[in-house]
């Protein structure tokens, strides 16, 4: 190659490098601007539009400092100082307005003219207004920071935004500066843009807003990587003296751009799998600590704007999987109320008597407010098959039920329920007053109902079969239903063996009897909301049945569905809410967060999907023996065992039970009470503990008697709302017990009678709480 040719190629390469430099700056600037735009779109930082200038100046500073011949540590220190200075003036709004600056500039020119020409120096001094403004704003800035630090240390809320603006501005500045500096100085485009990408993706992930900026960032990053890689290759070839054609750059850029476009298209349109065992395992164990930290952050930055809620997508909400893990301590916040066409429950004082007699569900129609159903068991939880979302006008039936059931009309008023999926009884047929959408798997197999309104009226068809009809429903399943609701992944053989053993020992031959047998087995497990979660690679049903033998509704419902499928009975997993508590003034059931529930549903040909209840703390579904039996929805449990028991046998059994009660556990007035006061008070405390255990309010490890009794008093008052009287009686018993155990003074008969009187009043109230608990579904 001649000297002239080499010189021309070097000149051409330098020209290309300068062109690439500005092209890279434009591309990286566009990518960097995505971060403040994403924050502004999510709306959690007030006045976030000004962050665009922080990104612009940060990137420009990074490009300039990258070309300064100075050690990296010095440039890092300088950038930190510049970023902090910019963030302080951003958060404190220290710079005066442009009009003030121009006015002071004119005044400074006049002052200087007078000083030079007139030899007189007098106020107003140059830039006096600007300096006064900046000084006042700086003092306010320091005061605001002190107030924020004090509130953060005390754990109280702070509405001041100074610290929020300071931290966000500094973060945007440093991320933008790093993008420019690492791209030019270190020649590492991926390293330069990675922190920026993490920030944009994190903002979109936590706020569920601004995903379009994630897509734009990814496209810009791919193009930047292509151009930077072409420049790197050209520099390498020049260094090695390799001759290359000028058209090669154009071809490489064209090919790289095409590949980038294909990758972006694939990322946008290909489905993805949302579960990640490692992430789930981490959040299940570390989540509570992180949530506590988030709570403190919310208080510290309480002045930030709330993130706008995106319009719920019913398809995405229905497709969200459910993993069975640890239970949640749900609050008592009301989620919705529902007025149902069923007859209202009898008055509350009558319900107590009915509960004591065991015939509650003869007089109260049992309902579950179902929100969604799942069909695919994964070994660790549930997912749903491919679906479609179909919209319907108000009053339009989306399906004609294939079975005869009772029509149930429900009017829901949403109070605190979030999301696009709404509850309804069994099979909703139409929404009367609102347009609605059905998430459907095909073959009229509904996954969920979606209504975008605070209140709606829905008409459902609920199965109402008799025991004989369920036992007779033995026709073959449709092919699509068998393929979907008998399917199981590879599960441990001992799960299948146990399910088969249960139905064999019960001599269960029909689908209904198999369901009853497995339901009865699971109702003997222990109810525990705090059961440790299984390992990520462990089958959850195997873990529940053979390792813990304890759990809550997620475990029992999942186990029943899997065990039924293993013995050839079609079943599915349903989520929603228990019945809640009936409000007699509103004439509606009030459903709270603590009423969240899960249960299995079993398919019977010509009868539809029928609910079962394997969770031990919930009341069982009971069916009438025959439609003419006069039992309404629920007959006695004996009807499920087949055949009626003669009335005389019932009377004899009741009489025997009463005699056994008197002999084995005589009434209190037949007891020989301890005469010594200290012993009598300890005996009364023991009675209180036994009554509390029946309400599942027993002490936990590590609680002192005083701590436990405070917890017990609060729980009884919350459930029964006795106006503080129950808490007072618990306190009397607690103080007496402390005197009996730890005091050296002589206790008198008056001390004993005071404690026993409090227990007599409290015992009646605890019985009332227990009856109220039986009259409605328990918390799951």
Question: What is this entry, summarized?
Answer:
By secondary structure, the protein is an alpha+beta fold.
What tags apply to this protein structure?
single chain, 780 residues, alpha+beta, six-stranded antiparallel beta sheet, five-stranded antiparallel beta sheet, 24 helices, 20 strands, 12% strand, globular, disordered N terminus
List the helices and strands and how they pair.
Blueprint: H1 3-42, H2 51-65, H3 72-92, H4 98-118, H5 128-154, H6 162-184, H7 189-207, H8 211-240, H9 247-269, H10 277-300, H11 314-319, E1 322-323, E2 334-340, H12 348-357, H13 360-363, E3 369-374, E4 376-377, E5 381-383, E6 388-392, E7 406-414, E8 421-422, E9 424-425, E10 427-431, E11 436-440, E12 446-450, E13 455-462, H14 467-472, H15 479-485, H16 493-505, H17 511-522, E14 526-527, H18 540-548, E15 550-551, H19 553-566, E16 571-577, E17 581-583, E18 588-592, E19 596-604, E20 608-611, H20 647-664, H21 677-694, H22 705-720, H23 725-742, H24 749-774
Parallel strand pairs: 14-15
Antiparallel strand pairs: 1-5, 2-7, 2-18, 3-9, 3-16, 4-5, 6-11, 7-13, 8-12, 10-13, 11-12, 16-19, 17-18, 19-20
Helix pairs in contact: 1-2, 1-6, 1-7, 1-8, 2-3, 2-6, 3-6, 6-7, 7-8, 8-9, 12-24, 17-19, 18-19, 21-23, 21-24, 22-23, 23-24
């Amino acid at each position: 190659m001649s000297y002239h040719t080499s010189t021309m190629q070097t000149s051409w390469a330098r020209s290309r490098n300068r062109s690439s430099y500005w092209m890279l700056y434009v591309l990286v600037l566009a990518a960097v601007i995505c971060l403040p735009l994403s924050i502004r779109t999510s709306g959690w930082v007030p006045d976030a539009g000004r962050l665009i200038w922080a990104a612009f100046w940060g990137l420009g500073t990074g490009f300039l400092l990258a070309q300064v011949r100075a050690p990296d540590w010095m440039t890092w220190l300088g950038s930190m100082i510049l970023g902090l200075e910019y963030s302080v003036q951003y958060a404190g709004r220290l710079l005066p307005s442009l009009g003030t600056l121009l006015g002071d500039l004119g005044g400074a020119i006049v002052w200087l003219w007078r000083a030079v020409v007139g030899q007189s120096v007098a106020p107003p001094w140059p830039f006096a207004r600007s300096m006064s403004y900046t000084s006042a704003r700086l003092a306010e800035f320091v005061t605001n920071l002190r107030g924020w630090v004090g509130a953060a240390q005390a754990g109280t809320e702070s509405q001041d935004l100074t610290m929020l603006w300071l931290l966000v501005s500094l973060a945007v500045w440093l991320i933008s500066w790093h993008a420019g500096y690492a791209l030019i100085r270190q020649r590492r485009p991926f390293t330069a843009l990675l922190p920026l990408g993490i920030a944009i993706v994190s903002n979109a992930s936590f706020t569920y807003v601004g995903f379009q900026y994630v897509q734009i960032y990814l496209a810009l990053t791919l193009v930047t990587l292509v151009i930077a890689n072409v420049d790197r290759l050209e520099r390498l070839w020049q260094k090695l003296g390799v001759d290359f054609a000028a058209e090669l750059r154009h071809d490489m850029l064209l090919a790289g751009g095409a590949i980038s476009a294909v990758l972006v298209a694939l990322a946008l349109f290909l489905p993805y799998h949302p579960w990640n065992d490692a992430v789930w395992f981490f959040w299940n164990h570390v989540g509570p600590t992180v949530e506590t930290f988030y709570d403190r952050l919310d208080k510290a930055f309480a002045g930030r704007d709330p993130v706008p809620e995106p319009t719920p997508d019913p398809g995405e909400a229905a497709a969200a999987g459910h993993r069975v893990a640890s239970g949640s301590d749900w609050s008592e916040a009301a989620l919705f109320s529902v007025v149902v066409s069923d007859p209202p429950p009898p008055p509350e004082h009558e319900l107590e008597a009915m509960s004591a007699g065991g015939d509650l569900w003869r007089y109260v129609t049992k309902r579950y407010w179902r929100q969604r159903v799942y069909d695919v068991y994964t070994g660790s939880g549930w997912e749903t098959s491919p679906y479609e979302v179909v919209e319907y006008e108000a009053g339009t039936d989306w399906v004609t039920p294939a079975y005869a059931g009772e029509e149930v009309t429900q009017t829901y008023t949403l109070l605190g329920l979030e999301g696009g999926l709404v509850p309804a009884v069994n099979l909703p047929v139409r929404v009367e007053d609102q347009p609605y959408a059905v998430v459907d798997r095909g073959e009229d197999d509904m996954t969920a109902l979606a209504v975008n309104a605070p209140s709606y009226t829905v008409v459902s068809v609920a199965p109402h079969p008799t025991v004989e009809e369920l036992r007779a429903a033995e026709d073959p399943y449709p092919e699509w239903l068998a393929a979907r609701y008998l399917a199981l992944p590879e599960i441990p053989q001992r799960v299948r063996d146990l399910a088969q053993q249960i139905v064999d020992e019960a001599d269960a031959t029909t689908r209904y009897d198999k369901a009853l047998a497995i339901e009865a087995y699971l109702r003997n497990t222990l109810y525990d909301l705090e059961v440790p979660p299984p390992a990520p690679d462990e089958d959850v049903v195997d873990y529940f049945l053979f390792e813990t033998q304890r759990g809550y509704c997620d475990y029992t419902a999942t186990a029943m569905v899997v065990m039924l499928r293993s013995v050839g009975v079609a079943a599915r997993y349903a989520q929603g809410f228990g019945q809640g508590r009936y409000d007699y003034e509103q004439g509606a059931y009030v459903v709270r967060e603590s009423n969240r529930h899960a249960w299995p549903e079993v398919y019977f040909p010509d009868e539809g999907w029928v609910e079962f209840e394997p969770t031990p703390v919930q009341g069982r579904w009971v069916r009438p023996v025959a439609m003419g039996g006069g039992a309404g929805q629920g007959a006695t449990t004996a009807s499920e065992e087949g055949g009626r028991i003669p009335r005389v046998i019932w009377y004899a059994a009741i009489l025997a039970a009463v005699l056994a009660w008197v002999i084995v556990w005589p009434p209190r007035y037949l007891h020989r009470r301890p005469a010594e006061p200290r012993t009598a008070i300890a005996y009364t405390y023991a009675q209180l503990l036994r009554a509390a255990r029946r309400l599942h309010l027993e002490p936990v490890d590590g609680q002192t008697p005083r701590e436990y009794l405070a917890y017990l008093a609060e729980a009884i008052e919350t459930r029964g709302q006795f106006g503080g009287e129950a808490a007072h009686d618990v306190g009397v018993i607690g103080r007496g017990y402390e005197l009996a155990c730890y005091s050296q003074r002589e206790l008198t008969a008056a001390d004993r009678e005071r404690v026993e009187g409090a227990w007599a009043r409290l015992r009646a109230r605890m019985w009332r709480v227990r009856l109220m608990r039986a009259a409605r579904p328990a918390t799951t």
